[in-house]
Design brief:
Largest interface: A-B, 29 and 30 residues
Structural class of chain B: mainly alpha
Number of helices of chain B: 5
Number of strands of chain B: 0
Shape of chain B: elongated
Shape of chain A: extended
Distance between the termini of chain A: 25 Å
Number of helices of chain A: 21
Order of helices and strands of chain B: HHHHH
Number of strands of chain A: 14
Largest sheet of chain A: 6 strands, antiparallel
Structural class of chain A: alpha+beta
Low-confidence stretches of chain A: none
Oligomer: heterodimer
Mean pLDDT of chain B: 89
Strand content of chain B: under 5%
Radius of gyration of chain B: 19 Å
Chain lengths: 668, 160
């Protein structure tokens, strides 16, 4: 219902209890640590950032290991998996984990190492394959590549550029006979040759060959190329084997996935704790911590701590200039919308929590925009299914989202019935297509498609009520701040002015005609209302510039404030989106129905097609209009409603707590 | 020449669906490009950027809505499709706000959407606020829709 009042808590305890106290506070998760103490000779901060670094490294390694496991052995995800929240564990299980800690840490390191090995082996295979391919040209050479000659002969193994045939090579070396030339292989790029000559001619042969562009095949391996290729093949196989082995090792480690997840959480919890220790003021035997605590949690913490430990507790009101964090609390009906308020901004100092009032309008506006009984029922049932069957597993944020759409769905059903929309005009279409008789479920109130003007007037009426509630919130806020002058100047004058203007308009025949109203106020009331409105306008002009001393400036500022009435006009017009979005749902639904009914000439196949088109079409329509309703309801709240009284600006209460990803502590 | 009424009316309906649809197609396309860029960096933002991408898509739907209402009013979807030239021109005029404002506002809204996607990329917690900027532009499409609907509904009863 409101912003929770916060208190500053200061705890002074013995250092030997530090671990236990911190763990207990962390599991409770109700204190935001905010140290405002200065260091002196006795109380100092203890630097544990080295430990935090280690923890963060462990977390990073474990997360990487999990990613690796997920990529080798993917987890099957079910459609409703998102509804399963974190698994629950007891504090005892948590404490027991410290025994496994080292082994899991080793496992994570091992997984990361195995992956490193795999990539190394893959690189090795690439290298080996390159050599293997290079040697292909030499396969028919039956002597080792590093052969340089015998006692009396010299050998040259290497390549000549482009294609050469035996004749041209012999011709090149004709003067150096006796000589033996073998062409090992020839391609367009190069010719691989083996030349053997007597030792005395080696020098000249070498020079001649070089002149022709000869280059030595640089190899130091004492094996024939064919044999060498065989060896390479074996090595490649070996590397591939290593990879498979590493992969299967990783796959066997999958059994420890849960342990690794636990490890991530365990280390996250510890890192959070060490972060707090880093901030504590510690003396030789004691430590002091201070922070914010919601007032209502005070007594629990007090009894819990003082019954288990020897310590001194102190509570005090936060000072005026402190930046106190904000936590909202609302009943089950409004709480789901705290997230919407939060994503605008949390209430600033001296502002009230708008969630409760907003929730009434939020659900109503949402329902008006979607306004189809069947769509609403689908949403409501879907959310109810999740809320009921997963009630023990849902995370809070998911539960709130489901609850929000549950209430939005109910409101949608209500307005759908009021406006006679069931999948658009499905009853008419089915009855006229298949039974030859037009049946219509009459709306409880009226068809907006048939009477758009009436719907428009209704939308604007809702708008005026919404805006006036916003002004009312401002009044309440000013009342709490005891700024009574501002209540008259900034709220009451505006109420009177706008109310007067509306009455005046309602007494004009032209206006009543436009809106199609059946009644018209007597002109006397209209005239009186007009005079009152003018008085209020004069009041606004004279008072709304009150912060300026200069009377001329004050008048101009007041005049500018009065110009704000155009703002009210556009605000009210803005609610015409209720009509537009409501019609959009209904009309698109009937377009889908119409398309589906065109299949009626195809007998049985026609019925199947009819159902398929309906299913696809209406699913799409729900999607589009759900998005539209969500966005525009938010807009009406943020811009029109909040614009009247709310600016926000506080920071969120961020308690020292267990912020895990996979597991959570069982609530006692 | 007496049959021109239906031609003009259908032209109006077609223009509403056509121009507003084009605007939304361009707009959603722009949003999609920006959103895809964000996804390469952080796939977990998919839900948020998708919503922002779809925001300029509503104009196309409004255009469809106007086109559909017009078609059913002038009897193209069954019934007698005989209306006077003057009425046909009136329908054409009634469709124009949605057609033109729909086209322009979808593209402008898409520009706001792209900027908002950039906001979400850097500061995902500001999603609520960033959603409002494109929604502001949509107001004018809604106002145009309103005038188009009211005119089309009103023309039927006129004695011309």
């Amino acid at each position: 219902m409101a912003v929770l009042p916060m208190q500053r808590i200061t705890i002074c305890a013995l250092k030997k209890d530090r671990k236990k106290i911190l763990e207990q506070l962390q599991r409770r998760g109700v204190i935001e640590i905010d140290m405002n103490l200065t260091e002196d000779n006795i109380f100092r901060k203890n630097d544990v950032s080295a430990a935090i670094t280690v923890l963060n490294k462990n977390i990073a390694t474990a997360k990487e290991a999990l990613q690796i496991l997920d990529s080798y052995v993917p987890i099957k995800k079910s459609m409703l998996g998102a509804l399963n929240g974190r698994l629950e564990i007891t504090p005892e299980e948590y404490d027991k984990f410290s025994l496994k800690h080292t082994s899991v840490e080793n496992t994570t390191n091992k997984i990361c190492m195995l992956v490193k090995q795999i990539s190394e082996q893959k690189a090795e295979i690439l290298k080996l394959k390159a050599t293997w391919e290079m040697l292909y040209a030499w396969t028919t050479l039956d002597i080792p590549m590093n052969f340089s000659g015998t006692k009396y002969t010299s050998g040259f193994i290497g390549t000549l550029p482009n294609i050469w045939d035996l004749d041209s090579i012999y011709a090149l070396l004709a003067e150096q006979m006796p000589i033996n030339v073998d062409i090992i292989s020839a391609s367009r790029e190069q010719t691989c040759i083996f030349v053997l000559c007597v030792k005395e001619k080696a020098q000249i042969v070498s020079e001649k060959l070089r002149a022709a562009g000869f280059s030595y095949a640089s190899s130091t391996i004492d094996k024939a190329p064919a044999k060498q290729r065989e060896d390479l093949e074996n090595q490649i196989k070996q590397a591939e084997n290593n990879i498979t082995k590493a992969i299967s090792k990783i796959e066997t480690l999958v059994a420890q996935r849960e342990d690794i997840r636990f490890f991530v959480d365990y280390e996250t919890i510890r890192a959070e704790k060490y972060n707090v220790i880093n901030q504590l003021s510690q003396s030789k035997n004691t430590f002091i911590m201070t922070g914010y605590i919601p007032e209502k949690e005070k007594s629990i913490i007090e009894t819990e701590l003082s019954s288990n430990f020897e310590l001194a507790l102190e509570f005090e009101q936060p000072k005026e200039n402190e930046d106190v964090p904000v936590k909202l609390e609302n009943n089950g009906f409004s709480a789901p919308l705290e997230g919407i308020v939060e994503s605008y901004s949390l209430p600033g100092k001296s502002e009230i929590d708008p969630t409760t009032v907003m929730s009434l309008f939020y659900y109503m506006l949402f329902g008006l925009m979607l306004s189809d009984a069947v769509y609403g029922a689908v949403i409501t049932l879907g959310c109810a299914f999740g809320l009921f069957f997963y009630r023990n597993k849902l995370e809070n944020s998911m539960r709130n989202t489901l609850k929000m759409f549950f209430f939005c769905g109910i409101s949608t059903v209500f307005w759908g019935v009021m406006f006679g929309s069931y999948l658009g005009d499905i009853v008419d279409v089915v009855s006229s297509t298949y039974f030859g008789k037009v049946l219509t479920i009459p709306p409880f109130w009226f068809f907006p498609v048939k009477e758009p003007m009436r719907m428009l007037v209704f939308a604007m009426l809702i708008g005026i009520i919404h805006l006036f509630s916003g002004l009312g919130m401002k009044l309440y806020q000013l009342f709490k701040q005891k700024d009574y002058k501002a209540i008259i100047y900034d709220v009451v004058f505006w109420y009177v002015l706008i109310f007067g203007c509306i009455l005046k308009l309602l007494s004009m025949k032209m206006f009543a005609d436009i809106l199609g109203l059946k009644f018209i106020l007597p002109s006397l009331i209209g005239n009186i209302a007009g005079i009152i409105a003018v008085v209020a306008a004069v009041g606004i002009i004279t008072t709304n510039g009150r912060e300026s001393k200069n009377p001329f400036k004050r008048f101009l500022k007041g005049l500018y404030a009065l110009y704000g009435i155009t703002g009210y006009l556009s605000d009210v017009l803005s609610y015409s989106r209720l009509l537009a979005l409501g019609l959009a749902t209904g009309v698109i639904a009937s377009v889908i129905n119409k398309m589906a009914s065109m299949t009626s000439s195809l007998s049985i196949i026609g019925v199947v097609l009819f159902i398929i088109i309906l299913l696809l079409g209406h699913t799409l329509n729900i999607g589009i209009n759900l998005l539209g309703a969500y966005v525009h309801t938010n807009r009406l709240q943020y811009v029109e409603f909040f614009g009247k009284f709310y600016s926000g600006g506080s920071r969120k209460f961020n308690p020292f707590s267990v912020k895990t990803k996979y597991y959570k502590f069982k609530e006692e | 020449m007496e049959n021109l009424g239906i031609v003009f009316a259908l032209l109006g309906a077609a223009l509403a669906a056509l121009l507003a649809g084009c605007g939304s197609a361009i707009g959603v396309g722009m949003g999609g490009q920006a959103a895809a860029g964000v996804i390469t960096e952080d796939p977990s933002k998919f839900g948020k950027v998708l919503i922002l991408q779809l925001l300029p898509g509503t104009q196309g739907i409004y255009g469809l809505l106007i086109a559909f209402i017009t078609l059913s009013q002038i009897g193209v979807l069954g019934g007698s499709a005989v209306i006077s030239t003057a009425k046909g021109l009136l329908y054409l005029a009634a469709c124009l706000p949605m057609a033109i404002v729909g086209y322009t506002s979808a593209i402008r809204q898409a520009k706001a959407s792209v900027a908002s996607i950039a906001v979400v990329a850097k500061r995902p917690e500001q999603f609520g606020k960033s959603m409002i900027f494109p929604a502001m532009v949509e107001t004018y499409a809604i106002l145009a829709l309103l005038i188009s609907i009211l005119s089309i509904m009103g023309i039927n009863g006129l004695a011309v």
